[in-house]
Design brief:
single chain; 424 residues; mainly alpha; 19 helices; 0% strand
Length: 424
């Protein structure tokens, strides 16, 4: 082997190793920028990406004709492949998120009027960044809220309020929207009363053995019945809190309460006849249960009179109901009448309960991590439209160059598509 041959081989090995290291570092830089870099440092990461590409180009060009002379090592090829994989993954992830966001907002926008929908899109992005809830979930929630009759001018505030409920109530935002709008519509409340409904739900969760998620799955079945006989939402929440606190599951509580309220409100039923007999001589005499409720009495006021009447006839409160389910609810409520009345007061005075619960949950490490991740996802989606063309073209060029082992072409391509100066 001649001295010149040895020199060429030494230079080749050193320069190829340098190209390999630069290329692998470039791939690592891209992956870190896309996977772990906080949103507020993304600009610095992209600057590092540009520097990395320049270093790779210098190292690759330094080998020049030696590499072109088919002295390319497997190590360099692997480094370039790592770069290509990172670029392609970036394009794929960004496109996927951007398309999902676009589709979700397009659905919600079918219920929006006016020419300028940008404020709603940007409002959801900002809300997503603050709360850690995915943009697509918020857009779906906005669609549900608009469908339920929430005014367009208030829909962003309404959705964010229900995010508080979902955080503190261990449920999904869409589920929270469903139970809140069901209550608002059934009780014909103003949409501005949504926060009170949420506060009552959280207070019911706090005082009972239930969650907002469980209430959302069951309470909607009872709300129309309760409203039909003028049982206020505050009292309904107190019923759930009292009965579940006594060890009855939320679903069973719904069955028991539904049976009790239905029978008290049904003309000619066993319970209704007993109520009429029990209230004789009082200001409730001759009135329907719905009318007694409208007077401001709660259900235990009626049940107390029914129990006294039952005992006077040698019977029990359970005998005043034709269904065992209704009797169970009545007995639990009357046995815990004092705590039930206290729970009603707690529901009325529950202002701020949902917001407080949400703040507690948002202060956890898990929620803070989710917020940070969501901010990165939203940023990736936002820059996709500007970044994707360069990433996509570069990734394709890297792939094409690999086929021909054109490392110089790869370096020049990377520099071309990531250059800050405009391209023709």
């Amino acid at each position: 082997m001649s001295q010149a041959d040895g020199y060429v081989r030494i230079v080749t090995q050193n320069d190829v190793s340098e190209a390999q290291r630069s290329t692998e570092q470039l791939g690592d830089t891209i992956q870190e920028a896309l996977d772990t870099t906080p949103a507020d440092n993304m600009t610095n990461a992209m600057g590092s990406l540009e520097d990395g590409i320049s270093d790779t180009g210098d190292a690759a060009l330094k080998t020049g004709d030696i590499i072109k002379a088919n002295l390319v090592s497997e190590a360099v090829t692997q480094g370039i492949q790592k770069l290509g994989s990172a670029l392609k993954a970036a394009a794929s992830n960004a496109v996927s998120m951007a398309m999902s966001n676009e589709t979700a907002f397009a659905k919600a926008s079918t219920l929006l009027s006016g020419d300028d929908l940008t404020k709603y899109f940007e409002g959801l992005i900002e809300m997503s960044n603050r709360t850690g809830v995915a943009f697509t979930d918020l857009a779906e929630s906005m669609y549900s809220a608009l469908s339920a009759g929430v005014p367009q001018d208030n829909v962003l505030e309404f959705v964010e309020n229900t995010v508080n409920l979902s955080k503190g109530g261990f449920t999904q935002t869409a589920t929270a929207i469903d139970i809140v709008t069901t209550a608002l519509n059934a009780y014909q409340m103003e949409m501005s009363e949504d926060t009170h409904v949420q506060d009552v739900l959280i207070t019911t969760q706090n005082l009972g053995k239930t969650t907002v998620d469980e209430l959302a799955s069951n309470m909607g079945k009872l709300i129309p019945t309760a409203n039909g006989v003028n049982v206020a939402f505050d009292q309904l929440g107190a019923m759930y809190a009292t009965v579940t606190a006594n060890g009855v599951a939320t679903a069973e509580t719904t069955t028991y309460l539904n049976a009790m309220i239905n029978e008290l409100g049904a003309s000619g039923s066993t319970a209704e006849k007993a109520m009429q007999a029990a209230t004789a001589g009082t200001d409730m005499a001759g009135k329907k249960f719905s009318e007694i409720s409208a007077m401001g009495y709660d259900v235990t006021d009626v049940l107390k009179l029914m129990d006294e009447y039952a005992q006077s006839t040698g019977k029990s409160l359970s005998d005043m109901f034709s269904s065992s389910e209704g009797a169970k609810a009545a007995n639990i409520l009357l046995s815990n009448a004092e705590s039930f009345k206290s729970n009603i007061t707690a529901m009325i005075d529950s202002t701020g309960a949902a917001a407080t619960a949400a703040e507690t949950m948002m202060d956890t490490t898990a929620e803070k991590t989710q917020v940070a991740k969501n901010q990165i996802d939203n940023l990736t989606s936002a820059i996709a439209e500007q970044l994707l063309p360069a990433i996509g073209e570069t990734a394709q060029s890297v792939s094409d160059a690999l086929d021909s082992s054109g490392i110089k072409t790869v370096a020049e391509t990377c520099l071309l598509y990531t250059s800050p100066s405009p391209r023709d």
